[in-house]
TrEMBL record:
Binding site for ATP: 141, 178-179, 187, 211-213
InterPro entries: ATP-grasp, ATP-grasp_RimK-type, ATP_grasp_subdomain_1, RimK, Rimk_N, Rp_bS6_RimK/Lys_biosynth_LsyX
Gene: rimK
Cofactor(s) listed in the protein's UniProt record: Mn(2+); Mg(2+)
Organism listed in the record: Psychrosphaera haliotis
Protein name: Probable alpha-L-glutamate ligase
Length: 301
């Protein structure tokens, strides 16, 4: 198959691994910088142009869309979809997962376990907002934050009030969430491909750090999932409409809770921790679900 990886950096581990795995399986794989794409939007013959040339018709695309380029990146994915190209993650699913508030509301609607969460624009009673999620300690998150940036732990109600007031003074959108103490600064990253958990690792935050992100000095180890954890991860991916994603879970006294669903999960940490060839599994899923693009005969490639 002829497959494109939409990525801003061809040297990133995940991008390189996907290209290597795809080519090893006999596919023709191109890496395309999303922001260098531009589109000809017509009803008769939509196309994507790149470096002054029309791109060939691909059978499938693998979007690796960073959070900072979600708007433009999903527009490019939509254009490929208009051209009859299969995307392992559809543009609408990527947009859905990037909106943290919308994601939580969709997961809640499906009855999937979540930390108790509050959201408000200008609450007249901040104390009531704090009370409704169980009081301090609690976690305050910027809606637009990534990789643990914009996530603050407030140890007391007074500290929580001050932080919320500060964020609101900056007109920032925030979530207020209960702090799951029993998780012990750890979470579980589940890699879901094609409706199955194909790999999982436990991420432990550095000493004195409640955030478990590997970018913040956390460590990763292989973990065996319970049936409930596996089902929660699969159901969360399904609720988002994602065929390839990372689902972050907290182990709580009330069962697994979903923290986030990531539509462009990194592969380095989980492949290293588990020894599994996740990149090849992505292409196996594409081969199973994608059909040859009939439009390829109508254009270049």
């Amino acid at each position: 198959m002829k497959i494109a990886i939409l990525s801003r950096n061809k040297n990133l581990y995940s991008t390189r691994r996907l290209k290597e795995a795809g080519e090893a399986l006999g596919h023709e794989v191109d890496i395309i910088d999303t922001l260098h794409c531009y589109m000809d939007i017509t009803s008769s013959r939509p196309t994507v142009r790149y470096h002054g040339k029309e791109l060939p018709k691909y059978d499938a695309v693998i979007p690796r869309i960073g959070a900072s380029v979600t708007f433009y990146g999903t527009a490019v994915v939509r254009q490929f979809e208009m051209m009859g190209t299969y995307s392992i993650n559809e543009s609408v699913a990527i947009s859905r997962s990037r909106d943290k508030l919308r994601s939580l509301q969709l997961l809640s609607r499906k009855g999937i376990g979540l930390p108790r969460t509050g959201f408000a624009s200008r609450p007249d009673k901040i104390k009531d907002l704090i009370k409704n999620v169980g009081g301090a300690p609690l976690v305050i998150k910027l809606l637009e934050g990534t990789q643990g940036i914009g996530v603050v732990l407030a140890d007391t109600n007074k500290a929580a009030e001050a932080i919320i007031e500060a964020f609101m003074g900056l007109e920032a959108n925030i979530l207020v969430q209960e702090f799951v103490k029993e998780a012990g600064g750890a979470d579980i990253r589940c890699l879901v491909v094609g409706g199955k958990v194909v790999a999982a690792m436990k991420r432990q935050g550095a000493e004195g750090e409640f955030r478990s992100n590997l970018h913040r000095g956390g460590s990763a180890t292989l973990v065996k999932l319970t049936k409930a954890e596996r089902e929660t991860a699969v159901n969360a991916a399904k609720a988002m409409g994602l065929n390839f994603c990372g689902v972050d879970l907290l182990q709580s006294s009330n069962g697994p809770m979903v923290m986030e669903v990531n539509s462009s999960p990194g592969l380095e940490g989980i492949e290293t921790a588990t020894g599994k060839d996740v990149a090849s599994m992505v292409f196996e899923s594409i081969a199973k679900n994608a059909k040859p693009n009939n439009n390829r005969t109508k254009g270049k490639g």
